[in-house]
Write a structure and sequence with these properties.
- The longest helix is centred in the first third of the chain and has 12 residues, at about 15-25.
- The two termini are about 15 Å apart.
- Strand 2 and strand 3 form a beta hairpin.
- This protein has helices at about 15-25, 70-80, 95-105; strands at about 5-10, 30-35, 40-45, 55-65, 85-90, 110, 120-125, 135-140.
- It contains three helices and eight strands; from the N terminus they run βαβββαβαβββ.
- Strands 2-3-4-1-5-8-7-6 form an eight-stranded mixed sheet.
- With about 140 residues, the chain is α+β, with helices and mostly antiparallel strands.
């Protein structure tokens, strides 16, 4: 059902400072940066140098606007501080995965895709996964 770990999302107060720190301290390189207005965040995906396509990423996530409490991630950052936000896992068939997880009694929430060329996403509520928010993405979609 679950194919591979895509990335771990980490909430940070200041994206530029966090990128600099993770790059210098751990030798990671920025693969991409984006602003996701629907979630009120900006992010950067980092990997070790020379990582192949489809490698595991660290996603650093920061609010687009300081003090934003209208979006879930900035609100959680304000409440809990910096730290791990989610574990993202890819699957081949998001609909079948969602159905299977729901059938097992897990609390699964459907979310729209972030990019125009991506399928929707699923989120498994932390109460269904030992306190971990799990984001499920369709591989290649």
């Amino acid at each position: 059902m679950l194919e591979r770990i895509s990335h771990i999302g980490i909430m940070v107060e200041n994206l530029d400072q966090a990128v600099d720190h993770w790059s210098r301290a751990f030798g990671l390189e920025v693969r991409s940066r984006a602003e996701i207005e629907v979630e009120g965040i900006k992010n950067a995906f980092l990997t070790p140098p020379g990582s192949a396509e489809g490698s595991f990423f660290i996603e650093l996530i920061a609010p687009m606007e300081e003090g934003d409490t209208t979006h879930a991630i900035p609100r959680r950052l304000a409440e809990s501080g910096e730290g791990v936000y989610h574990l993202a896992i890819t699957v081949d068939d998001i609909a079948a995965t969602g159905a299977a997880l729901t059938e097992q009694g897990l609390r699964v929430v459907e979310l729209p895709g972030i990019a125009k060329d991506r399928a929707g996403r699923l989120v498994v509520h932390p109460k269904s996964a030992n306190g971990v928010l799990i984001e499920i993405l369709q591989e290649g979609g």
